[in-house]
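User: Okay, second chain of the day. Same drill as before: sequence in, structure tokens out.
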Amino acid sequence: MSEMSLTPAAVGKIQALIEDEGDDSLCLRVFVTGGGCSGFQYGFTFDTEVAEDDAQMQQDGVKVLVDSLSYPYLEGASVDYQENLEGSRFVVSNPQASTTCGCGSSFTI
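Assistant: Same drill. Structure tokens below.
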């Protein structure tokens, strides 16, 4: 399977957020937790600590971390950044998800 990817919109927003923080060592951490309307939900945070078992990727100068438990759920997924009437948010397009909820942040495999 392929690793996770970022759309140009996601890369641009991540770069802008890192610039706002003024800390070039920040990495975007993408993770999966139990919960949400469909069983699992996506989470995003900035992190400077790289754990020993983190998968690391870099795209267009943006560094992304995924913990070893979340990685199998995110293989082949694409992270986008969208601004619309519902607000602004990162959205994951995950080919492994069999169902997703209306909010787009929860899924089932």
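Strands lie at 5-6, 27-34, 40-47, 55-59, 62-66, 78-84, 87-93, 99-100, 106-108.

User: Thanks, on to the next one.
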